Amino acid sequence: MTGRLRLGVNIDHVATVRNARGGDHPDPVRAAAIAAGAGADGITMHLREDRRHIVDHDLERIRSASDLPINLEMAATEEMLGIALKFRPETAMFVPEKREERTTEGGLNAAREHNKLAPMIRALRENGSRVSLFIEPDPVQLAAAKSLGADICEFHTGRYVELWLAGDHELADVERERIAQAARRAVAMDIEPQAGHGLTYDTVGDIASIPQLTELNIGHFLMGEAIFIGLDAAVRKMREIMDEARA
Ligand code: PXP
To answer: Which tens digits make up the pLDDT trace of 116-128?
Structure first.
């Protein structure tokens, strides 16, 4: 599996900036359109329980403005399940969510949350969404994802990125190999392997070169770069690095 690696652009932090002042600017809808024009293959949004960035009315607005598939990140709550069943995203991705965290810390404990997740995953799949679980690259979590019937697993790249950025390239390589192994194992289990979290221009290449991965989801770094070079250029550059790593 060495096809084109898809890029899902997470537009949450356009909404973070918008919400800092209230009002409509900057509009995540405009960001989704620019990302699409620059080579994104999907739009990712995380509707958090506290609505700190994306809010409910963004979902339909973004859907009607863009043809790209939508990956809706959500906590495993009855409220989010109801919203996802109504909205019917192409992919519904379960992520762990804590109110006090700044961003998603660590992967989902799919093994421990089996009984809560199982009926939710069934309902979403029967409703026409594919279901993804955001997990650590860990065989126990993968086995749990398989028994839950997940279509996709997104492996958390946060630890790899932190190690790499701290200059600990040896340990970063070990973590990259853990992600590569999990991706191979996922394919053998008929689960689509994806990855994301914290990726930057410097760290994306080594992850993009894992041939089994089908998609990377990237947000915060792209939005930060967009301040300096514009969103179109930031997404294009990320795409280029990903394509080079795959070539
Ligand atoms: N994947 C998941 C499951 C996430 O929660 C996030 C952050 O919302 C990302 C990918 C993207 O991470 P980042 O914004 O650090 O690129």
So the answer is: 999 999 999 999 9
Cβ of 136 less than 6 Å from ligand 1: no
pLDDT tens by residue, 131-167: 999 999 999 999 999 999 999 999 999 999 999 999 9
Distances (CA, A) of 159 to 52, 122, 195, 197: 24, 30, 12, 9
Q: Which residue has the tokens 């060495």?
A: 2
Q: How far is the CA of 217 from the centre of ligand 1 (A)?
A: 6
197 CA distance to ligand 1 middle (Å): 4
- Residue whose C-alpha is closest to residue 93's, from 137, 65, 123, 129: 129
Q: Is 73 a catalytic residue?
A: yes
Assign domain 6-246 to its CATH architecture: Alpha-Beta Barrel (3.20)
- Shortest-distance atom of ligand 1 to CA 93: 3
- Over residues 77-117, the pLDDT tens digits come to 999 999 999 999 999 999 998 766 666 677 999 999 999 99
